[in-house]
Amino acid sequence: MTLIIVLFWQVELPNSIRPVYSSLMEGVIICFTGFKDKGTLQYLCSLAHQMGASIRRDMATSITHVVAYTVTGSKYKVLLE
Questions:
Q1: Contact 57, 31 (CB under 8 A)
Q2: pTM metric for this prediction
């Protein structure tokens, strides 16, 4: 199916070191906050990467989405200001 889309719409395949199964999140930059369980965080990061998203550890103006475990974290509070 991807080959058909590439040929028909004449789009380039994503250049990624990780497997990309979908480009739905291409251009999305995510920052996760408040996740204590490293396994859960790795799983969520893997899913985001597989859909073409980028992950950042620290808040920056380039962040397009924040995924917060709770609404009490410092990164979440920065968003409210």
A1: yes
A2: 0.70
